Structure formats: C-alpha cells, structure tokens
Amino acid sequence: MPFKLTDRLKTGCDIFWQKSQPQTRTGQLGHTDQGIGAGSHGEMMNTPTNYGTTLLRISLGVIYIAHSLYLKLVIFTLPGTAAFFESLGLPAFLAYATFAAEAIGGVALVLGYQARWAALALLPIALGATWAHSGAGWVFSNAGGGWEYPLFLAIATAVIALQGNGSLALQQEKVVLE
User: What pLDDT digit, counting tens, does each position of 61-84 carry?
Assistant: First the structure.
C-alpha cells in the first residue's frame, strides 16, 4: 500500500508535537516539575514569554521592596505609616503587616521563589492601595496620589499570580491551574 503524503505529514506533526512538549513529572497538590528532560536542557522555560514574565516579576519585586523599605520605613516611618492607616479607618497593626508582606513578597518575586503565592499575598495590598487612593482622582501625581498606579500594580501582580516565576528563577516549578 503506498504511503500517502497526508499520512506522512500527520506522522511528522505527531513526532514534532511529542518532541516539543515539555516532559513533566506531576507531584503533590497539582504541581509539575520541569525536569531536565524538558526539551533539551530546559529550553522550554527560556521563551520570550517567560523572559517577559521574568522582567515583570523582578520589576514588581523591586517596586514592592522599595515601597516597603524605602517609602514606609525611611520616608514615612513605620509609626507614620500606622497613623496613615488609622486615618483611613484601618487598624494600625495592618501597616506593620503590609510592610512585612511587601518586603518579604518583594524579595520572593525578585528571587523567583513561590512567585505565585507571593503575588497572591500582595494582591490584596495592591487593591487596598487602590482603594486608599481612590478619593484622590485618577492621576497618581494628584495631591494624595491617584489610583492609576496602584491599580496597575494590582493588575501586574495578578499577572504574576497567573503566570508564575518565568525564567531565571530560584524555583523552576510551574503550578498547573486545573
């Protein structure tokens, strides 16, 4: 029986598809670990999309660290930040919790360790900042700071929560969201 061109294309596509899929091992809690067999030497993790995620992850981490250590600790001081939280009707201890979450979460993002969980922990903080600045108008350069920057920070944080570590991360693990 002659070998048809359509059969040859189908077979070639099947072989390509199998070779292009990363080999993963499924662990507990739906985690998959990109093994050494993921492509050759893990090149599936080093795509332009993953580099984009990495750039966003590291940038967000630096922003959260600066917002925590520089703005809250040095500029406003922790007691000043606590007083601001109280002026919004929030308990003062939330200022200290926010400071710690931004510092620890920022470091986790920069390193690429548990980026999804760090982003999920930081998302309520970014949304809270959006709420806190909502009365000052849209533009962040307004007196009291507007809500455009905190909203963008919340959206970018949600993207990392969805996409994970990207490349160049301490933890090369992807969580399957099924």
Answer: 999 999 999 999 999 999 999 999
